Amino acid sequence: MNRKRIIISIVLLAMAVPALLSAQVKIGYISSERIRTEYEEFKEAEAQLQLEFRKVQFEYSGKLQNLDSLKQSYESQRLMSSPEWRREKEQEIQNMELAIQNFQAEKVGPEGELYRRQAQMEYELLAKVKAAVDNVAISKGYDFIFDGSVSLLYGKPTHDLTDDVLYELGKVEPGQ
User: Fold this and answer.
1) Burial of 166 from C-beta contacts in 10 A (0-12 / 13-18 / 19+)
2) Residue 26 belongs to a domain with what CATH number?
3) What residue numbers bound the domain in which 26 lies?
4) Is residue 174 part of a domain?
């Protein structure tokens, strides 16, 4: 009796496997690099970050010039000045150097304003791209969509959905 159940189970499993293997799985891919270069909002975000970086860089350069000026003034007057004046100026130089280091950390450090701003902009843009990919997948019946920019060695061009995603994002029409 037990042997009969095992044989029936094997026969049923053998019949089910081809049916499972023949099920159509629809797979596509996108090029995130191409989306980054062609999606206008990515370009605008990059330009805005570059502008903010240039402003910070200009401000930083001004602070360095002030420090250099203070150091030159100190060096030119150091020998003819009182020890009290020298200590005061040395302290002023140290304070300015510390302020410059703090400014640099606040603006461009790993937890600085520009880094946080870039991360926020990227998060918002990637959320839009993800929503567009989801819409394309659902509307065209895809089971999986991969990012071909990351690890795709070959993909049939008919499975490239980058144009569809860009269209969904409002950038280009498919086929352009």
Assistant:
1) buried
2) 3.30.910.20
3) 2-169
4) no
CB 67 within 8 A of CB 103: no
Crossing angle of helices 113-140 and 162-169, rounded to 10°: 110
The two tokens of residue 69 are 């000026």
pLDDT at 24: 80
Domain assignment present for 175: no
Sign (positive/negative) of CA torsion 46, 48, 50, 53?
Answer: negative
| pTM tops 0.90, yes or no | no
The pLDDT assigned to 173 comes to 47
Taking alpha carbons only, the member of 106, 78, 79 closest to residue 93 is 78
Alpha-carbon span 32 to 15, nearest angstrom: 41
Residue 98 in any domain: the answer is yes
Mean pLDDT by groups of 10 residues along the chain of 176 residues: 61 54 77 90 91 93 93 86 88 94 88 89 92 93 86 81 91 51
Q: Give the CA count within 13 Å in the CB-facing half-sphere of 91.
A: 6
Q: What's the number of domains the chain is made of?
A: 1
